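Entry 14. Ran structure prediction on the chain below.
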Amino acid sequence: MKRALILGSRGQDGELLTRHLTAREYHVVGVDRDSVDCSRGGSMPPVDVMDPASIHAFVRSFQPAEVYYLAAFHHSSQSTDLLAPAAMWSTSFDIHVHGLINTLEALRDAAREARLFYAASSLVFGEPDQSPQTEAVPLNPQCVYGITKAAGSRVCGFYRKQYSIHAAVGFLYNHESHLRTEAFLSRKIVKTAVKIKHGEADELVLGDLSAQSDWGYAPDYVDAMHRIVNLPGPDDFVVATGRLHCVQDWVEAAFGALDLDWRRYCREDPSLITRRKRPLVGDSSKLRDRTGWRPATSFADMVSIMVEMEGAAHVKDACVHPNL
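Output, C-alpha cells:
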C-alpha cells in the first residue's frame, strides 16, 4: 500500500486529492494547520511544516512515497497585492516557500526516494508576452501570490538539480468545484444564483462580466497531480484547459441551469475591481504528451455540477435550520 502525505489537506484540492488517492487504496495522511487526518484510521501527532524538526520527525516516521505540497495562502482577486502589508508577504513566503524548504530538507535527509508535487499557479507568469503559456514562458509574477509561488517553483528546481530530489511542479490554472469558498468568484456566482432561485437574494453584483480566465474542473486537476508525481522523472508542467471563458459565461451557465434570466438579477460595479490583469490561458501539451491527461469535464458541465451540488446543500441546510 502506497503512502501519501498531503500538506494543505483541507482546502479544495486537498479534499479532492484525498478522495482520489483513497479510492486507489493509498494510505493518506492529510496535514492542515493543527489537524492531522488519517485515511486508515488511528491518530498521529500534529505536524507543523514551519518547524523543521516537526516535519522531519514526521517524514522519518511515516516514510511517504508521495508528498503533495498544496498549502496556499489565497488573496482576494479584488484586492491589490502590490500594496499588501508586510504580514501578507511574510505569511505568503512562510507557506509557499519556507514550509516547502523544510519539507524538501526532510525528504533529502529521511526519505530520499519520496516524490514531491508542488502546486504552483498560473499567476507566476504575470503579464506574459506569449499566449497560451507553456513551461518555456519566462516567469514574470506581478502579485504577492505569484511571486511567492514562483519562488517555490524555483526552490523545487534547485532541489532537483542540486540534490536529485524528485520535486515536480504544476502551474495550475483556475480550477473550481463546489468545495470552493465564497471568496472565489465561481462559488459566489453559483451560491448567489441558488439563493435568488429560492427567493433569498435579489441580485448578483460583479466587477467585470467581460473578464476572462482559463477555468477547469478541480477533480480533473488533482488527477493531473497524481499523474505528474508518478512520472519517471520530475519536471514542470502547465495544467490548464487551453480555453478562455469570461465571467458572463459563468453567469449565463449558472442562471440558465436554474431557468433564470441572468439579465434580471446581475449587474456590474467596476469599483469592485482594484487590479486588472491580462487573461492567462495555458498550453498543457507537455502534460498531455507525457501522461495522456485530458480535462474530462467541460466548462458547461462543471458549472452544472456546481449548481446541482449548491442546490442540494441549500436544501439540506434548510432542513437542518428550518427557521433560518
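The longest strand covers residues 115-121. Will compare against last week's run tomorrow.
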